[in-house]
Here is the input.
Amino acid sequence: MGQQGVTVTIDGRQTYMTGEQLSNFLKSTDAAQIKSVEVSTTRSAKEDAEGAVGSINIVLKKNNTEGFNGSFIASAAHGKHLRGNSSLSLNYKKRNTTLFGSYAYTNDKQENTLNLYREIRNRENITYFDQKAKFLERSKNHNFRAGIEQKTSENNTMMFQVSGNSYSEKSENSSFTNIGSAPSKIDSILRSPAKNDMGLDRISLNFNNEYKMDTLGQKLTLDLDWSIFNNDANMNYDNRMEFPDGSLVKPEQIDRSIMPTDIDIYVGKLDYVKPFKKGNLEAGLKYSKVKSDNNMIYDRLDGDVWENIAKRSSHFVYDEQIAAGYLDYSRPFGKWTAKVGLRAEYTISDAQFISNDASVKRDYLDLFPSANIGYNMSENHIFSLGYAKKITRPNYRFLNPFRYYIDEKTYQLGNPGVKPQYTHGFTLNYTLMQMFNFTLGTDITNDAIVESMGQDSVLNETWVTRENLGRSVTSYLNMNIPFKVGKIWTMNNNITGIYMHFKGPIAGYEVDRGSFFIQANSFHNFRINPQWSFEASVNGNTPFIYNLFKIQGRINTDLGANYNFKDQKSSLKLAVTDVFRSNRNNLDTDFNEFRSSIRQYNDNQTVRLTFTYKFGNLKQQIRKSDSKNEEKDRVSTN
Here is the structure.
């Protein structure tokens, strides 16, 4: 809905990763193992209060076919470089026991480009920076999952699974910046080639036990998770300030950084469901503990000896514990349905800046009410009205005062003073003919965590940081409109009109402005016959203003063709993404003394060929559906 603050979960479990770590994890996840993706903008007390906008839950496949079966997938793609992946999935079920496992390997190579233009003004003159950078990334990933599901009695089912991945990435950044007193005059050139060697190892253990206490729907579920992340990122920087003739302005500066990060996550949940007073009562407890240890060491080469740069080094340890309890009650009243809930979360956080012998400790109790009222006017006209209070806690990377350098003059700066932001969300939903969905909503956020800018006109440095600034209000109208044209053509159109308004101080100036824009997606499927089908997808957004930044319009087009072999076990798919190379990230800043322009293109345009082969027993047994399944009670919008 045009906002940040989405919570991403895997099978309903939080990932507790930073944006970059989550991005790498999702890139390494085999799409063939994904059953569905649930997008929800509503909130009940059972769900974590984290996430200002909503939640995206990635549901992994779970095979219930009797006997032995599996699938093998091999895929190759070419953008600017060749890339590919393969996976093997196995499943065996006999009576009350199910064994499952999967392994996937990805080998990727991408080339991304970035052009950054900016101006730094002081009272006497303007300095112009025109940076061009090319990023060549090579990554490999091994991803695995294995487990057992055992029905120990007619009413009890337990499951244990282990999953993990080993991800490595090597990247090279060839960057140069023309610096001058006029756009056409180059006084000096900053060359900043950099190399990055990063590795991420993760292993997670999960135990789940579901006990059906009776045949009326009373159920008790226990879920335990333990995850370990080890992340190593080594960077090598070479900063050369040259005159236009190639001679050095100052001695070459060679730096390096070593940043190991260890993350431990412990989560325990207990959920209880019981039919009560003609309705349904849900209650539960949850405890989570996250510890992140980030020890950044920054060195500079002095002759043949590496010297530590203390002001750029940082040892940061972040501990967070959240104890939560919730109560949800839902009940029908004729054509009306009502669901009300209350969630309480007690948070204890301790940010330790060991390098500076300082810390920021917080503990706070928050109550998060939620309510949803539904009205079934008729089978073809269904209304619902919802409210929920939500929270977005600052990522620990935003708290770490370390400088994440793009080059010598540009960096991202952490802010240990950032506090959580709170959002009150209101939604009105209308479903027409059980097919067309319309959602009108407003999210009001106080103490909004905003990306702000700063610059030093003496040192010619520019940085980005995050602060709690002002109040933001986002209103939207979402329309999800599926259609079927004839016998072979089906489509789904999703259109959202959004108005964002922000009021508060940014970069030392008072801001009071809003912006309206549209984002849309149109997906088309053409099933010619049982063997052949074709797909087309177009999505994008119109230009809009986000705080200091004007985001340019964007459009993306994907095409695909799929052929199912007559043995019904094999298929071949050809897909082309970003057909017109138009999926670009472009933005501008023109705010008081801040002038900048970013033009970025990731290696999105690819041609991919995928072969899938299924083997073993593929005949699915018909199972009785569980009328008390919680997913059926969720009101979600795409």
Residues 19-27 form the longest helix (9 residues). The mean pLDDT is 88. The chain has two helices and 36 strands.
